[in-house]
Amino acid sequence: MLITLCGGEGAGKSTQVRRLSEKLEQKGYRVVVTREPGGTAIGRKIRALLLDPANRAMVADTELFLYAADRAQHLAEVVRPALKEGKIVISDRFADSTTVYQGVARGLDPERIQRVHELVLQGLLPDITFLLDLLPEEGLSRALSQANQGTRSLDEMRFEQESLDFHRRIRQGFLALAAKETNRFCCLDAMQPQETLTDTMLLVIEERMQSRKN
Description:
single chain; alpha/beta; Rossmann fold; five-stranded parallel sheet; 8 helices
């Protein structure tokens, strides 16, 4: 099973990935935790390019193809092998983030992005995608607080420096995706307590697993 988490900056995706994996492992599941970009050694080098605030001159096309390159390596090296072994893969971000960040927020042609997805994904889609929905003002405030506390790297805050309008487009883009693909997406209010969010996600996952058995 492939489970992905998406949402804007500061929504708590990394925290929930960790908490969710711990809970699932306690229940006896074999879990692989990963992220995009940066789920592989090559991907970590790509991540450094994509998220470095110094790379302000990077254009949307460069972002698109760097994310695609990271994803191709990620699928080949981490995701597909783990799925083949029957493990649960939980990824902090996946292709939906490219659709929203480079498509909705940057304005790239959605059909062009879809063609790139088709080349890289080759039909693979998440079984469940959790959207952690949060007002961008709150998310950016959280991200800044994390940076000040040293729990978020200042070297990876290029997108946090974008305008508030950019982040509002991201939120609306994710909400539109979730409304379009209701069978795959589960939209959650990221203002809820962490424990509540984790418990809700666990319930959704276990219900989906049970429906597969039936």
